[in-house]
Design brief:
By secondary structure, this protein is of the alpha+beta class. It is built from 6 helices and 6 strands; from the N terminus they run βββααβββαααα. The N and C termini lie far apart (46 Å). The chain binds zinc ion (2 copies).
């Protein structure tokens, strides 16, 4: 069984939303394939298991938890021992995860999966005009031939909207305020 990239204890295999996820009993971080991650992010609300109580926890509480758990230095892949890359799961979701470019695994510190899920769902349903405009642009970019250029422009717009740049909790808190209709 692969070891936790943060605490190096062997991880446990669990089935979550129909897919295999490896969890660490010490830090409660999660390791899964990128495909499984996206499946869980897009999956139904029942996935926020009763065990963690995540279903009842709001965006701000999850953001606070993630602020505490966030691993800012690049870890090593538990499967193939490549250094992981820190990146967002989606251009509009300002939460840093760690990805293996070699085996396509994804590492999530505790609280990140429910936070990313909630942000993804909130972004799908938001009526904030700044966010809907950006969401539509990204969707167009996914379809269009100029995909990469469009994506880059969308990200620049995102940076202008979120004053604090690309990462960090400042951008995350600002995004949550927009989603909650606070500004
Ligand atoms: Zn751990
Ligand atoms: Zn790997």
């Amino acid at each position: 069984m692969p070891r936790c990239p943060a605490c190096f204890v062997p991880m446990t295999d669990v089935v979550k939303g129909g897919v295999h996820v490896k969890t660490c009993s010490q830090c409660f971080g999660e390791w899964m394939s990128r495909t499984h991650l996206m499946h869980l992010v897009r999956g139904p609300a029942e996935l926020d298991g009763a065990a963690t109580g995540a279903a009842a926890v709001g965006l701000k509480e999850l953001a606070a938890l993630v602020h505490e758990s966030d691993t800012t230095q690049a870890l090593t892949c538990p499967e193939c021992h490549t250094v992981l890359s820190i990146d967002r799961p989606h251009p509009m979701i300002p939460v840093n995860l760690q990805f293996c470019r070699k085996c396509s695994g994804a590492w999530l510190d505790v609280g990140k999966l429910p936070l990313v899920r909630k942000l993804y769902q909130a972004l799908l349903h938001t009526t904030d005009p700044r966010l809907t405009a950006l969401r539509d642009r990204l969707a167009q970019a996914e379809l269009g031939a100029e995909r990469e250029k469009e994506k880059l422009e969308s990200l620049q717009t995102m940076r202008q909207i979120l004053r604090h740049g690309t990462g960090g909790t400042g951008a995350l808190e600002q995004m949550i305020s927009m989603l909650l209709g606070e500004r």
